[in-house]
Structure formats: structure tokens, C-alpha cells
């Protein structure tokens, strides 16, 4: 029986990315797999682009009727429902870390005999993720932080909703016009400069000709809060959240009149007790990406799906990282043990949550 990948339409509002590009689908078909793609009006790649490489089309959300051996491939959460789930789903389930919805999600899979092969938990032998959107999260997070800084410097109105762009060049055109309106460049700090997110953030500023300082483990290992942050206009936090991380900033450390006025928290863990940005308590949305923090005069960006602003580049990057591992499923192989570990993570989540 041929391996079957079923690419589902996303239900998350504003989501335009995909875990499988048309070129990736072509490679899977060449390797002997069948690929079915649900019709979508929001996916960055057209339905016809998939048909052109040999995919079958299906109606949106019809994966529930897919053959039981199909791998249901997606990115973000499934629509809320209560029927049992019988397939193997490859997506970001957000159900392995004790999230509020974890019990309901996992119980559906347990009831139907399905499995979650969670994209966040696809790891190599060293425990490193094999595919991630981090670079583009950092890139877009830095862009919104900079754009928000300029907006609030020049007017008092609420920062507008952010839409997706066809490609990076169009977004940069918009941003360059905003930067050209500045009388002087802002002082920018990126924390977590050597990670995927940090590299993306620094590249955004480089693309716009803006100098940015970078900190990483060496600069933060002594533990915060760090009053030096007060001397920057924009902080982009891309640091990996580790248990016991001391705060980078607090209300007290910011003092009475910090220069800092914009924080883009790409890491975005406002409800974690170890969150190093301890002056806000909620994620934001692309419809209202920037909110007031708990400190007067300082605003925060904390969107949790930033890469969808650049769905073409972020999808090509992520899907390109994932594709070699999908190809191993076609061959019935798992040379790095990526899928075996994913199944173990799922089993452990069932035990710990249910």
C-alpha cells in the first residue's frame, strides 16, 4: 500500500502557511507516495499548483473521511469538536505541555486510536528540532516591533492590524518607507542573537540598514534584571525560555523614565512564571498586535504565529526542513529515529495528561 499524505486546509483565522509546498509534494509523489490536498482559499500556494505536480484535490475539511492509513498533515490546531480521531496527524497540537486544551485533544486521539506526531517534537538524535519557523518568527517580530515603534513615535492612534504579504520584498518596501520617515535611527537590542529567532531579527534590521546590538548567553548568564536595557528604544526578545530564567526586565528595573518604549516578545510566554519579560500577561493577535504593557509608555508585541505574515518564505523554509523526514515515511524507514521519538512523546503525553 502506498504511503498517503493528506494536506488539510487550515482553520486558524489568518493562517496562510503550509507544511507542504507544491515542490515538496512533487518529491513525495516521485518517491512513490500519494498526495491529496484539500482545497483552500487561504493557503499561500494555489490549488492548481498542487494539481500541476500530480496531487489529487479534495474538499476542505474532508480529511475526516480519508483512508485510515493516511497521514493527515497540517500546521495549526484542528477545529473544535468531540468525535474520536483515528488517523495519524502531523501538526502542532500544543497538547504535550499541560496546556488547557491538552486533555480534550488527547482524549479524542485515545478514543479513536489515532496518534499525534507533533511537529514541535520531531527531534534528531541530539534532541534538536528538525524543522522550525523560528527564523521567520524573529524576522517578522522585529519588523512589527520596529513598525510599531515608528507608528507610536509619530501618532497617538492604535497600531493597525497586520496582514500577510505575498513575499518579503513587498513587506520590506512598506518598512523602508516607514524607516525613511525617521529623523534618527532607533537603538535596538536583540536578546537571543545566536538562535534561529535571533538571527531572523538581526537580518530584518540589517535588511533595513539599522544597526542592532545582540545579547546571548554570555551577556545574560549573570541573571537579570538588566538596567542596560533601559537605554534602548526597542527590545526584541528571542531568548529560549529555560526553567528558572530570571527576569530581563521588571517594573522596578525599568525605573521612572526609561528610554525603552517598544518590546517585541517573539518568545511569547506571558503566562509562564519564568517569562523574562514580566510586564505583560497576554498574547496579542495580528488584528491587534501591539498592546500597552503594565508600565506606562511601554508597548508590547506578542503574537504567537508571526511567520504567517510572510507565508511564502516561511512555508518554503519550514517545509524544506520537514521534507526529508516525510520522505523517510514513504520508504518505511526512520534512520534518525525522528518518528519513533515522536510516537514516544505522544505516548508519554497520554500517560501524563490523561
What does this structure look like?
The chain is α/β, with parallel strands linked by helices. It is 32% helix and 12% strand. It contains ten helices and twelve strands. It has helices at residues 22-30, 47-51, 102-112, 134-154, 168-180, 196-207, 217-220, 251-254, 311-330, 338-353, and strands spanning 4-7, 34-38, 56-58, 71-73, 88-91, 115-118, 188-191, 213-215, 234-237, 262-265, 290-292, 299-301. A six-stranded parallel sheet has the order 3-2-1-4-5-6, with helices on both faces. The chain has a six-stranded mixed sheet with strand order 8-7-9-10-12-11.
Question: Short description, anyone?
Answer:
This protein is an alpha/beta fold and 354 residues long. It has helices spanning 22-30, 47-51, 102-112, 134-154, 168-180, 196-207, 217-220, 251-254, 311-330, 338-353, and strands at residues 4-7, 34-38, 56-58, 71-73, 88-91, 115-118, 188-191, 213-215, 234-237, 262-265, 290-292, 299-301.
The helix content is 25-40%
- State the order of secondary-structure elements, H for helix, E for strand: EHEHEEEHEHHEHEHEHEEEHH
Total number of strands: 12
Low-pLDDT parts are none
| Order of strands, widest sheet | 3-2-1-4-5-6
The tally of helices reads 10
Mean pLDDT: 95
- Rg value: 21 Å
Layout of strands and helices, then pairs:
Layout: E1 4-7, H1 22-30, E2 34-38, H2 47-51, E3 56-58, E4 71-73, E5 88-91, H3 102-112, E6 115-118, H4 134-154, H5 168-180, E7 188-191, H6 196-207, E8 213-215, H7 217-220, E9 234-237, H8 251-254, E10 262-265, E11 290-292, E12 299-301, H9 311-330, H10 338-353
Helix pairs in contact: 4-6
Amino acid at each position: 500500500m502506498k504511503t498517503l499524505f493528506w494536506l488539510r486546509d487550515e482553520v486558524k483565522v489568518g493562517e496562510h502557511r503550509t507544511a507542504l509546498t507544491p515542490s515538496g509534494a512533487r518529491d513525495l509523489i516521485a518517491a512513490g507516495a500519494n498526495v491529496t490536498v484539500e482545497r483552500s482559499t487561504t493557503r499561500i500556494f494555489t490549488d492548481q499548483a498542487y494539481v500541476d505536480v500530480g496531487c489529487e484535490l479534495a474538499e476542505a475539511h474532508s480529511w475526516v473521511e480519508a483512508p485510515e492509513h493516511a497521514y493527515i498533515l497540517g500546521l495549526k490546531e484542528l477545529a473544535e469538536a468531540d468525535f474520536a480521531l483515528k488517523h495519524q496527524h502531523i501538526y502542532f497540537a500544543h497538547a504535550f505541555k499541560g496546556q488547557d486544551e491538552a486533555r480534550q485533544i488527547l482524549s479524542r486521539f485515545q478514543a479513536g486510536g489515532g496518534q499525534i506526531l507533533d511537529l514541535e517534537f520531531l527531534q534528531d538524535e541530539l534532541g534538536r528540532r528538525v524543522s522550525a519557523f523560528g527564523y521567520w518568527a524573529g524576522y517578522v517580530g522585529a519588523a512589527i516591533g520596529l513598525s510599531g515603534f515608528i507608528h507610536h513615535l509619530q501618532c497617538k492612534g492604535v497600531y493597525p492590524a497586520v496582514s500577510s504579504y505575498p513575499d518579503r520584498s513587498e513587506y520590506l518596501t512598506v518598512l523602508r518607507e516607514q524607516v525613511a520617515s525617521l529623523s534618527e535611527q532607533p537603538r535596538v537590542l536583540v536578546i537571543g542573537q545566536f538562535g534561529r529567532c535571533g538571527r531572523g531579527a538581526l537580518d530584518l534590521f540589517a535588511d533595513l540598514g539599522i544597526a542592532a546590538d545582540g545579547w546571548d548567553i554570555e551577556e545574560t548568564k549573570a541573571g537579570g534584571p538588566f538596567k542596560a536595557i533601559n537605554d534602548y528604544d526597542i527590545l526584541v526578545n528571542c531568548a529560549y525560555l529555560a526553567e528558572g530564567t530570571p527576569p530581563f526586565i521588571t517594573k522596578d528595573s525599568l525605573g521612572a523614565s526609561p528610554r525603552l518604549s517598544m518590546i517585541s516578545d517573539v518568545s511569547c510566554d506571558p503566562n509562564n512564571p519564568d517569562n523574562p519579560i514580566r510586564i505583560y500577561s497576554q498574547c496579542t493577535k495580528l488584528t491587534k498586535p501591539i498592546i500597552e504593557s503594565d508600565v506606562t509608555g511601554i508597548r508590547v508585541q506578542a503574537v504567537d504565529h508571526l511567520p504567517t505574515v510572510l507565508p511564502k518564505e516561511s512555508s518554503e523554509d519550514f517545509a524544506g526542513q520537514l521534507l526529508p523526514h516525510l520522505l523517510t515515511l514513504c520508504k518505511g524507514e526512520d534512520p534518525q529515529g525522528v518518528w519513533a521519538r515522536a510516537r514516544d512523546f505522544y505516548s508519554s503525553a497520554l500517560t501524563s495528561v490523561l
